[in-house]
Amino acid sequence: MKYVGAFDQGTTSSRFLIFDHGGRVVGHAQQEHEQIFPIAGWVEHDPEEIRRRMWDIIDDGLDAAGLTAGDLVAVGITNQRETTMLWERATGQPVANAIVWQDVRTAELCEELGGAEGQDRFRDKTGLPIATYFAGPKVRWLLDQDDDSQHRAEAGELAFGTMDSWVIWNLTGGVDGGLHITDVTNASRTLLMNLRTLDWDDELLDAIGVPKGILPEIHSSAEVYGTATGSLTGVPIAGILGDQQAALFGQTCFEPGEAKNTYGTGCFMLMNTGAEIVPSHHGLLTTLGYRIGDEQPIYALEGSIAIAGALVQWLRDNLGLIEDAAEIEPLAASVDDNGGVYFVPAFSGLFAPYWRSDARGVIAGLTRYATKGHIARAALEATAFQTREVLDAMNEDSGVGLTALKVDGGMVANELLMQFQADVLDVPVVRPQVAETTALGAAYAAGLAVGYWSSQEELKENWAVARRWEPRMAAASRERIYAHWKKAVERTFDWM
Hints:
Elements (H helix, E strand, L loop, with lengths): L2 E7 L3 E7 L5 E8 L11 E2 L1 H19 L6 E8 L4 E5 L9 E2 L7 H8 L8 H4 L8 H9 L3 H8 L3 E5 H9 L9 E3 H4 L5 E2 L4 E2 L1 H7 L8 E3 L2 E6 L8 E7 H8 L8 E5 L3 E8 L10 E6 L7 E8 L3 H9 L10 H6 L8 E3 L17 E3 L7 H27 L6 E4 L6 H11 L3 E4 L4 H13 L6 H7 L2 E5 L5 H16 L6
Parallel strand pairs: 1-5, 5-14, 9-12, 15-21, 21-22
Antiparallel strand pairs: 1-2, 2-3, 4-7, 6-8, 10-11, 13-14, 15-16, 16-18, 17-18, 19-20, 22-23
Helix pairs in contact: 9-14, 10-12, 12-13
């Protein structure tokens, strides 16, 4: 019996999972890492901590499954996408902490880059607005911190990468021959890659001011890139997908019009648009869905929401409203509705469909009647309302009305949220039997590359429904509460 591994380097934790041929989890290990907030709006991770934990997590995952590296045919990598770092090629030491995708320190730089053309200056080539979310402005900010970094970058002494590149460089040897690579999905989140050529674009590099010599080599999402070292010595590294594209692949959304929504730290809806690059006119992103080997690339429309599960963490860690994230559901269920309270968690501005870095969080509609139960319920409902905004935009851009939404991520265990999501969307919400779809997607890509699975059709056979929620809210109620939500969103604008 052979298996496929997946290393999932996420925003709040890293995980190593092992899957069998049926896509079932046979081994799992996970460790959280520190969230660093130097000043308001800045979010960082310590790359050294992530590297140290990586090896422990891999060892623990193998032990949990009772397996060794020899039992694995391949390993796939998935990662928080836009989080950005620089490191020294000679020593492997990070130049600074990684700047996390939620970080807004590049707001002024992004405004300068937009110039007279505004935030859509690079959208034709990249499918993206100029926003603090993406990696290109982040690396430019890092290089601007001192002249030495700029000189060393131009001399080829530094390496840039999103977290997939950092993980793979270390897994494949680091300073002793580690691979400096990325895949098309992660590269498409930098504002530096051309969606049509699938390569770094010289005009974009010049405009943002990023030396080409620091960039990783772009590959497909499924091929044998090299072999691992350490506890995984000899195992092929054969799949790379940014976490949301990995979830799309793990949910087997292989046909145009199929979509998934992942409820994690943030919330991300992706719709497969096939080989067609579909420009967005309603605040969405046009991005790479995946590319399998030499096959044609598959594109997607994406709606990105910065704060979803992170809001529950905030209620736990910053306010002490709950002691454990699992307590949010019974607390929210202790009241019949939100009591007129709406919580817009624009902690890092607003992403899709607004792209407002000037927005900040608002709790609206408070009265003496409101309790902590109403605030807990409003926090959960915020994720569902934001998803409704994204789905409305996706329907407009694609011209395809979604008939059901496949969901995954940590928050899908919350029955109250999933029912409210179906109610506010007025479409069924479907949870698969294997909820670990992000890691599963990376494993699928790696397994396809080495022939462990023969085709995407075989992968589809593994997908099965665990739970389905049907909408049951009256249309008038749905539109009334959604109108109140939109009103609350407007209150967040122009704060900064």
